[in-house]
Amino acid sequence: MIGSAALVATDIDFAYPNGVQVIEGWSGEFERGAMSALTGPSGSGKSTLLYLLGLMHRQSAGEIVVGGVPTARMGDGNRAVLRAGQFGFVFQDAALDPTRTVMDNVIETALYRGQPRKQAVGRAQELLEEFGVELRSTHRPGQVSGGQAQRIALCRALLADPSFILADEPTGNLDPLTRDVVVAAFRRRAAAGACVVIATHDVEVLAACDTETPLGGVPLRELGAAGPVGGDL
Q: How far is 196 from 209, CA to CA, in rounded Å?
């Protein structure tokens, strides 16, 4: 069931070191129990906004409140603890460490949180089996397909049953079957009470979402079958 806002941004600004202003005075909120889409044309800042919401970037102005906790004045160490404990991230290219096994990639953040390795491995094995990649746990990312890598990244994101899942074009390189597996997993997490935010230009993904937040341009729902609107910063 959709509930109150769990992730709130108020008047946030962000510019890269080269001076490019990507986010300016943006405010928005995302609800727990909902799957929300971020849409917009290339350069509108979808990816950057996800990194700000997930505390990977720090805004130059404004406030981001995570589960009722203001973060603007929070130190880097506390931000890292909050990020590791509350967020799961899925990126378009899976972002797996090529030097480590699939299993080690999946459990990395769990170990950072202090979870016993045996417990983390047990949960990881369950997820890898659920998503059909359990036989790949001893492989390295370069030894699996792109679709398998994205399923592995999904297992990593879901390992701790996070309250917030942020996904950046997670289906951009996937075949329809794998896309549907990934989207269904997001829907289940939202139904269980998580706040799921997906940056996407995929109309099929948008159709599965409860809300759309367009960052500039025409809302993707209005474009309908017009197709992709490009990449992002």
A: 9
The per-residue pLDDT for range 39-63, each reduced to its tens digit, is 988 778 999 999 999 999 999 999 9
215 sits in the region (left: phi over 0; alpha: psi -120 to 50; else beta) called beta
The torsion of the CA quartet 80, 133, 204, 84, rounded to 10 degrees, works out to: -10
Amino acid at 220: L
Distance of CA 195 to the CA centre of its chain: 10
Domains of the chain by range and CATH?
5-226 (3.40.50.300)
Kindly give the residue spans of alpha helices, DSSP state H, lying in 45-197.
Answer: 46-53, 76-86, 102-112, 117-130, 146-158, 176-191
- Residue 229 — pLDDT band, cuts 50, 70, 90? very low
pTM over 0.85: yes
CB 157 within 8 A of CB 131: no
